[in-house]
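Here is a protein:
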Amino acid sequence: MARITERLAKDGTKRYAATVRLKGYPIQSATFKRKTDANKWIQDTESAIREGRHFKTTEAKKRTIADAINRYIKDVLPTKPKLQNDQTTQLGWFKNEIGDYTLADLTAAMLAECRDKLLTETGLRGKVRTASTVNRYLAAFSAMLTTAKNEWHWITESPISNVTKPTENRSRVRYLTDDERTRLLAACKNSKNKYLHLCVSLALATGMRQAELMLLNWRNVNLTDGFIILHETKNGERRRVSLNGFVLELLKNHAKVRSIDTALLFPSAVDSTKPINLRKTFNTALKQAEIDDFHWHDLRHSTASYLAMNGASLAEIAEVLGHKTLSMVKRYSHLSDSHVSNVVASMNNKIFGSVA
């Protein structure tokens, strides 16, 4: 037997409390903003009970979404320093939106509403969030729910698995032209920030991610043989980064004036235990160089694009950038068409050259 009761929330909006009672099973209940969602939940819950699938736990009824977010931020995020700041902000958004609901009330429909709102709102930088940004919000919330399910046993299933992620536009490949690169490096060199020119040069020469670059430690840099070892990378695998020519000399000069009170290559002037934040000075340099529609991560795109245009294979580009598969570097394939043509021509000459 199922029942839907209409109620008024504190803000005066309607809520629909759905209840499912089946003989021999605990009573199941949840609250929704829309009656159609309540009806669907009733159908799904009745089917799940009859088919022997898990239903909501007692913990899910006692704990709010805010409880789960607070515990995750306090206990789990400190073990993920690279993600801590961003995911604290991302989870804070969900806490403000749906934190008062219990975990038992959480549904895919509710999360889909959150997804749609994220896609239409302006973010911290005053611009409408992109699909990739919204996916990072969903990923943070998903990680929290996974922990609540597997470690805390507060829920038995994660409804976010039924939420469709917005499609990201992966076709954009923005890289610096030769003229833009010259102008940007000149602006960086004239910057008041003593690290900016070196950091941008390193990013262009190596393809390192911003976090990898900012967290560089002197013990992982070998200036004699010209390489850096990245022990912590996005894909979890150690990577060797080659240093050559101009940037190697820049780094050797930087080592002569390194700070002795920190192991970081680029420490903050405020707190030497933390890396410097170059966002503001980098944006200033972009304006001075009159370069539009460009972000720090596009330095990495520039590295990959230059490699492709200089004959590197997709496998070689993937190795330099630290990608496990070729799928992420296929976006640069059109830039290496001439190299591929030369490879095919060479193969044809070899196998058909003697045929005449």
The mean pLDDT is 85. Residues 131 and 167 are 6 Å apart (CA to CA).
